[in-house]
UniProtKB/TrEMBL annotation, chain A:
This is Raffinose/stachyose/melibiose transport system permease protein. GO terms for cellular component: plasma membrane. It comes from the Bacteria. Belongs to the binding-protein-dependent transport system permease family. It is found in: Cell membrane. One of its GO terms (biological process) is transmembrane transport. Pfam families: BPD_transp_1.
TrEMBL record, chain B:
It is found in: Cell membrane. The chain crosses the membrane at residues 12-36, 64-92, 113-133, 153-176, 260-282. It is a multi-pass membrane protein. GO terms for biological process: transmembrane transport. The keyword Transmembrane applies. GO terms for cellular component: plasma membrane. It comes from Kineothrix alysoides. Residues 65-281 form the ABC transmembrane type-1 domain. Gene3D superfamilies: MetI-like (1.10.3720.10). This is Carbohydrate ABC transporter membrane protein 1 (CUT1 family).
Length: 276, 292
């Protein structure tokens, strides 16, 4: 019995290692080939580079205006997540604590609209963007993300607030806090874990979203990382060393964030799913 | 106790920022979309007329659109089954391994952190260069296919890349479900003589229904709107063979034709399809959960 358990452990560990290799295969290959010269890449795609050839990276950094694109993406993602967490915690808390028909109606409206797929509103949304004059505006884009993503966030906040006792808020009110003070001094600190979940899951979404910026942002000074990667791919479609180094550069920030916040991200995915 | 009106006023004040962005960027586009789908609005002229159901009638004979609908349904069904089976098997396997659980979880979930635009382009390198290299140098002749250029293989490539991107995410949700299964139930089943498979099927599987529901719902919803992976991997090609509905709508509106009204009509149909399928799915999982 014990022997077979041990064999089983070795067997599945090996199996998982093979699957793990398959999973990281595209990344590893992109990485090793991004350091080769074009000639070396064409002669052997599976070998390690004979010497590190950094020219690809220098070229890609410049061609995709890497640091500007990265700055735009960080600005966009942070702002979008800030709006989303602030707006939906305010709304979710108040909706949960207000027992009126209007409150029930608003909540149902937010929840139901989670079913509306993005692709079915994207064209009328484009018209709204043109009418408001926020085409090519990163702040405008962050507000759009807040509008599209807050249904889910409100749902999560609402569910969490339901589970915390109302007595604390009543005590704060007796002590002379108004609603806004009660929210920021008493309620919001208790929502920290939920806020982390909301921020992380939505940060990943905004960071990796492509279609919405593709429609809204056409000025290359406002390009996000994905947009400039995409443009570079269009320009150099057969120059693999340029493309691969650009892809590595574009993937790097997400991978770093993942390595640092791994535990929170995993928890965020699981929590968001269980409550959603 | 405050009066209802006062409560509602304070509710509106607190929900105001959320309501404004929601109304402007989601509700208003959703509602006006229904109107635009009945106009001949395009990107060229400022004026447009109400043309009733003409767009929808045109759609009936739009072969490219129906081809994209059929392609999308095929994609959804195949991905739904493959990705969820793989994710569940992986989740069970990773949970049962004694050493390195965290490490494997990290590696398997990694593709999910990278946009499918980047992932798709990386896979393009594999399909265009690496597989041919293996076929030529290792004699693995079965790899010598036009992976992106041939209709059949292009579909397969898309499924491979899409699964690569989402299996890790689904696995995390299944693992959370598995961790919620109380060990004493599994031990009791073991005492009753249940073997590994029976234990899984009769004890674990019914208890992870919520995770299953979430995963199926997520896969359905996201794969019906698939855009990124197709855009980066095949661009909808060869020809229009791998165009999903979202790609078809995007092309209609923002490439070449600029027929916003007609494209909006298509997107209204997409919404209806998703709505019906979600309703069916919620209904069936609800009745299943009641059975338990």
């Amino acid at each position: 019995m014990r022997g077979s358990r041990k064999h089983y452990q070795i067997f599945i560990t090996l199996l998982l290692i093979i699957i793990g290799l398959f999973t990281s295969f595209p990344l590893i290959l992109a990485f090793i080939n991004s350091f080769k010269s074009n000639g070396e890449l064409l002669s052997n795609v599976l070998s390690l580079p004979s010497k590190l050839y950094f020219d690809n990276y220098i070229r890609s950094l410049e061609k995709m205006s890497y640091f500007r694109s990265l700055g735009n993406t960080v600005f966009l993602a942070v702002l979008a997540v800030f709006f989303m967490a602030l707006f939906s915690s305010l709304a979710g808390w108040k909706m949960c604590r207000t027992k009126t028909r209007l409150s029930k109606f608003l909540f149902a409206m937010f929840v139901f609209s989670m079913l509306i797929p993005f692709s079915s509103i994207m064209i009328p949304l484009y018209k709204v963007v043109l009418a408001l004059g926020i085409k090519n505006s990163l702040i405008g884009l962050a507000l759009i993300y807040a509008g599209l993503g807050e249904s889910m966030a409100i749902f999560i906040y609402y569910g969490f607030v339901k589970g915390i006792p109302v007595e604390m808020e009543e005590a704060a009110a007796i002590d002379g806090c108004n609603s806004i003070q009660t929210f920021f001094l008493v309620v919001f600190p208790m929502l920290k874990a939920t806020t982390a979940t909301v921020c992380i899951t939505n940060m990943l979404w905004v960071w990796n979203d492509f279609l919405l910026p593709l429609i809204i942002i056409s000025d290359n000074k406002k390009y996000t990382l994905l947009l400039s990667t995409n443009t570079l791919f269009g320009q150099y479609s057969s120059d693999w060393t340029a493309i691969l180094s650009a892809l590595i550069l574009a993937a790097l920030p997400a991978i770093l964030l993942y390595v640092i916040f791994q535990k929170n991200i995993m928890k965020g995915i699981a929590d968001g799913a269980v409550k959603g | 106790m405050q009066s209802k009106r006062k409560q509602n006023f304070s509710l509106i004040m607190f929900a105001l920022p959320a309501l404004v962005v929601y109304a402007v960027f989601k509700l208003y586009p959703a509602v006006t979309g229904i109107f635009y789908s009945m106009t001949n609005w395009n990107g060229l002229s400022k004026e447009y007329d109400f043309i009733g159901l003409k767009n929808f009638r045109e759609m009936l004979s739009d072969d490219y659109f129906w081809q994209s609908v059929i392609f999308t349904i095929k994609y959804v069904v195949v991905l739904l089954v493959i990705a969820n089976v793989m994710a569940l098997v992986l989740a069970v396997t990773v949970e049962s391994v004694k050493k390195g659980k965290g490490f494997f979880r990290t590696i398997f979930c990694l593709p999910n952190m990278i946009s499918m635009i980047i992932g798709g382009y990386m896979w393009r390198f594999i399909f265009y260069k690496v597989l041919y290299y293996m076929a030529d140098n290792w004699g693995w002749k079965f790899l010598d296919q036009s992976w992106v250029g041939d209709t059949r293989y292009a579909f397969l490539s898309i499924i491979i890349v899409a699964s690569w991107g989402c299996v890790g995410y689904l696995m995390i949700i299944y693992m959370a479900g598995l961790q919620g299964v109380p060990t004493h139930l599994l031990e009791a089943a073991e005492l009753d003589g249940a073997n590994g498979w029976k234990k899984f099927w009769n004890v674990t599987f019914p208890l992870i229904q919520p995770a299953l529901t979430v995963c199926l719902f997520w896969t359905l919803n996201s794969s019906f709107q698939v855009f990124d992976v197709i855009y980066s991997l095949t661009g909808g090609g060869p020809g229009r063979a791998t165009q999903s509905v979202a790609v078809n709508i995007y092309e209609e509106a923002f490439r070449g034709n600029i027929r916003y009204g007609y494209a909006t009509a298509k997107s209204t149909v997409l919404f209806l399809i998703i709505l019906i399928i979600t309703a069916i799915q919620l209904k069936t999982t609800q009745s299943k959960e009641e059975e338990l």
